[in-house]
Amino acid sequence: MGGIKEKKLFIFDIEGVLCNDIDDPRVVPQAPELVRELRARGKKIHIVTNISRKTKRDVLDSLNSLNFNLKLEDISTASSTTASYISTKHPQARCFLLSEAGLAEELAARGLRVVDEKPVDVVVVASDRTLTYSRLNAAMRLVSEGAEFICAGPSYVFRGTFGEDSGYFIGGGAISEAIRLASGVTPHYIGKPYPDIFQEALKRWDLRAGEAVMVGDKYSTDVKGAKALGIASILVSGEGGLKLGDFVEQYAPDLVVRDLAELRHVLA
Questions:
Q1: Counting C-beta atoms within 10 Å of the first and last residue's C-beta, which end of the chain has fewer, N or C?
Q2: What is the predicted pLDDT for the residue at 238?
Q3: Sheet strands (E) in the chain
Q4: From the first residue on, what is the mean pLDDT of each consecutive set of 10 residues in the chain (268 residues)?
Q5: Strand 165-170 and strand 157-162: pairing?
């Protein structure tokens, strides 16, 4: 545990770790206290999330309403990281989106054009609870014709609230998979477990991977994504009863805790 305690940067997932879901946020017990204690010890805090349906500002406001006291630059979302990637690679890009409002706003803030007509340089697919077959098919055709294909937030499902409906929804990864199968083109994935979003967090604090630890509740995205880059990881397993011996050694978390109360105790 000494190695974890010495890390300079603690990277947190949001949903399932700091709050239940960002659409109707309720704080996870002891999460704000843990963040405050880490800051008091001089640790840096950064948030990484596959959320694409909201802007980074929306995420910030939701988390700060739960007393996390974050700044905008402390957060990397799938949508904000995608906007950064496209603006660097294609600064004048015309973008066709399958997404909700958050991604479109992030792209517009970077001076990128969101269009529904050709020419199209980039097709970006994210979670979209208003998706129609017509738009899904249009995206497939544009990708087949040569537009760069990006998946912003590769989760297959996510928990949220949309109007009066709450529960699990199909995520951007599943929508992208339909286009991948139909077009034969594999997208550039942005979001956990892929590297761009982790690298953005490290760049924000000018730190190396070995100086950071990821705290998340999903092995497949939080732990494996971090470990692939050399970032240590802490898995918050809930009531699942998982232990270190349950994982493939190469991608095993450095620590498994049941909840944040246990993590606070371990880090004390």
A1: C
A2: 78
A3: 9-12, 44-49, 75-77, 94-98, 113-114, 122-125, 148-152, 157-162, 165-170, 188-190, 212-216, 232-236, 255-257
A4: 88 96 94 98 98 95 97 97 96 96 95 96 98 98 98 94 94 98 98 98 98 95 95 85 56 92 95
A5: antiparallel
Question: What span, in angstroms and rounded, lies between the C-alpha atoms of 62 and 50?
Answer: 15
The token duo for 181 is: 């199968």
CB within 8 A of 39, min separation 6: which ones?
45
The reply to whether domains 2-50+193-267 and 90-190 share a CATH topology is yes
Cut 0.85: pTM above it: yes
| Structural domain spans, the chain | 2-50+193-267, 90-190
Q: Which of 142, 145, 146, 124 is nearest to 134 (CA)?
A: 142
**Tokens in use for 31?**
């999460």
DSSP state string for 31-79: HHHHHHHHHHTT-EEEEEE---SS-HHHHHHHHHTTT----GGGEEEHH
Which residue is associated with the tokens 């603690």?
10
- At the second CATH level, the architecture of 2-50+193-267 is 3-Layer(aba) Sandwich (3.40)
